[in-house]
Amino acid sequence: MTNLATSNHVYKYNEKEKDPSYWQASGRQALNNALKYTMNTQRAKSSIIFIGDGMSLSTITAARILYGQLLNKSGEEEQLSFEKFNNVALIKTYNIDQQVPDSAATATAILSGVKTNFYTLGVNANVKLNDTNCQRIQQNKVHSIIQQAIDAGKSTGIITNTRITHATPGAAYAHTSNRRWECDNYLPKGIDPSCKDIARQLIEDEPGNKINVIMGGGRRCFFGPAFMDPGPVAQPDTNKTDYLLGLFSYSHMSYEEFREHRDYGEPSLSEMVEVAIKILSKNPNGYVLLVEGGRIDHAHHENVAGVALRETIALSWAVNKALTMINPLDTLIADIKRFDKTLALVQIQQTPHITFSTRLSNKTKPSMMAVT
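-> structure tokens emitted (372 positions)
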């Protein structure tokens, strides 16, 4: 559990909130907006699926407050971009063989509609964890929405700030009995050669080898250990580009907090979304784009709540970028928080100011510390 302390620093609240008529007018406006809302019954030509891994309700609450305070407000009154959606629902999340799920099986369920076993990827529940029967894996594959979109003649894309072979992006194209089998050196010794690691499936097999836009981290599974990191990232000409592969880091991409302080820099989620939509939207049949803010979960694992909140805000910015670029009449946007990472907000007194420390493990090695 991550504890997020709140100090007694007091932000100036909106003076209008003292007046009861402010709240009455606000309520009337919300009611009028709901009454005026007309359900779009057209069939979507394009879809963008945003997944916030580890983005619990308490994480959203704290991120909303922090975002508002960064804008010099008290915070509680602010809204993240996806909180303004007209349609909101809850998802029941579990694995076939375990009550508490993992990212691979839940991503498989989200992208294919089929629940499966813990730690497995792109297969149904007839495949158990660490199953080395490659024929059984192939016979029990499930088809993701990415595969279905390709079959329908649409363009497709995957964006993540984790490794592109990680659980969520992997569920879009790979079929394996263990999500950890990302590279050939992670496969069990003596396994049938016809069993492919996740990176190899992306390059050699459908639907991976037909995906138009792939951006994220994880060069380690595609190049040898002697490969040196390249120089600054080039800006693609989206008008002339139909296929784009961008692997911007050896493993996971940097936290948003430290991204711009890398030697060569890395694109933000928003920047990757912008490039992807420009490329994919050229297809008159539409497109399907998967976008994962996967490092929210990692920050919670590291027990650095402030980093998780800024990752959540970065995902909100990416959603907002998409909203400014798409036609809402023919494009469906879904923002999914997968499963919760517990976050406790402890108020000391008065209107709280969110504070946090940014102490990460040695393996993260940030180049700067967070400003609270």
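Residues 357-372 have pLDDT under 50 and may be disordered.
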